[in-house]
Design goal:
The chain has 14 helices and eight strands. By secondary structure, it is mainly α.
Length: 389
Amino acid sequence: MAIEKGTVERLKSGNYRLRVTVGYNENGNPIRLNKTVEAKTQRKAYGELDAWIEDLEEHGYEDVSTITFEHFYENMWKKEARTILEPRTVREYSDIIDNRFLPSFKSKKLLEIKPYQIKDIVVAAQPLSKKSTTLSRKTKKRYLNALSSVFSVARDQYRIITHNPVADVRLPKETAKKRDTPEPYSIDEVKKMLSALDEHASDKTKALVMTAFITGAREGEIAAVEESDFDFTSNTVHFHQRIVLDEDKKYQRRDGLKASDSKTIPVPESYMIQMKEFMTINQKARKKLRINPKHKYIFGSPEGDFELPTSLYRNWYRFVKGAGLRRIRFHDLRHTSASYLLADPNIPIKAVQELLGHKDYRTTMNIYGHALEETKRAASDRFSNLLDE
């Protein structure tokens, strides 16, 4: 079927909505397909429109009311997922959908899949490995996240559906189990960590641990931060890129962060002084080698190669062992940073949300609820002190 010329509409978000007419129903009304794309200019948006029309004409198009889950998943979601998700997340979500949902939803129309059908599949799911007999609630939620991604693309980018059915799925409550993930450091443990850094840590370890603790940045963001990202006038650090593991399981630099394009973090002057001193190590090495690489990574080599996130882990674990600290993951320094700040009732949740780079403040609240409880107790103590005067 030949597709009529489409239109481009700029949205308030800055993205563009593409719309094409793909046919007419029995009443003579046009059947339209919508898709939302990111484009820097309107001209590029029209380029996206032309490419989309060409793709539709080459591979054919089904009426939105007849598109099956398998058709959308294979031909639309897989293509879009590569542009909106981390490569590792795409692989994980694809495995989940292939093994858990595709067998049941394969031939079902996308518009007809109901929340109770999704819930039945997830609740009845059994481990694929013999090492475990049950699935944790966390794993089941991960299944829902994977499926939700498919419906979100169908809703937000293709306008095939108006509501994501996964949003209405409520899993049965389970008996709370002991968390496998270590708790973040307490305030006393943070003090012990800082003392150990001053006593016997290398310059690199000091810079690495303080960057993770003070900025709350993710490992990939820390591995990608460069000298030019440090503003010594305003005492800020700008994170705008990250190191990720691609689909071929090779590390590469990628523009943007996991949940946003960038974030700028205000930091203490004492930290900036420490980092300026640390930067001179690579600066002197480059001067001696007479090289000027494009990327000057803080924790990378003088030649301009970034440090692998796995190397950051190993550096952290060596320090923890030598200092006699409780072993937590390097990523848990991010949790420690957030918990430390949220335990202070004078620091607003919004500020911590921006520090961590969460899109939604509810994400911050859900992850760090234990720290918020400390804030509530502190607030209660203030009332008690007032009443006891």
